[in-house]
Amino acid sequence: MAGNLIWFLLIGNVVDLLSVTDDLGRAGPANAASGMAVHDDCKLKFLELKAKRTYRSIVFKIEEKQKQVVVEHVGEPAETYEQFTEKLPADECRYAIFDFDFLTPEGVQKSRIFFIAWSPDTSRVRSKMIYASSKDRFKRELDGIQVELQATDPTEIGLDVIKSRAS
């Protein structure tokens, strides 16, 4: 796991350097987010989840050709955690938000907003690089994230992990 993190950091810096030129080789602004814009719908859906609890989850995808992060899926308020994790592809990277409800040991109902950086081992190296180098900027656009998880396989985002990180 630590080796993967070092790999992502090194590759992320290379991607940042490569993003200084566009597809035609023209110089452009270097961007710590590898040139990925965030579609307004991403921020809108997140605000609706956070403030109105309109959704239980949101899955985001980077559209490489459009160079932007877009909403791929929203989960209705009744969606379970298992239904949410089924929406994460086995071999492609994604960002995801899940609003997790739980009871404290004192019996108080609470919720935590989780940000999940999903980067399965079986996904393409280029995709892992782009998602890793774009993550921090994307997260800054979503004010109100309470817990962050980085996962490469389903065991790292199991319900037991979520419960342990919620309190």
UniProtKB/TrEMBL annotation:
GO terms for cellular component: actin cytoskeleton. GO terms for molecular function: actin binding. Residues 1-17 form the signal peptide. Residues 33-167 form the ADF-H domain. It holds the Pfam family Cofilin_ADF. PROSITE patterns: ADF_H. Keywords: Actin-binding, Signal. This is ADF-H domain-containing protein. It comes from Malus baccata.
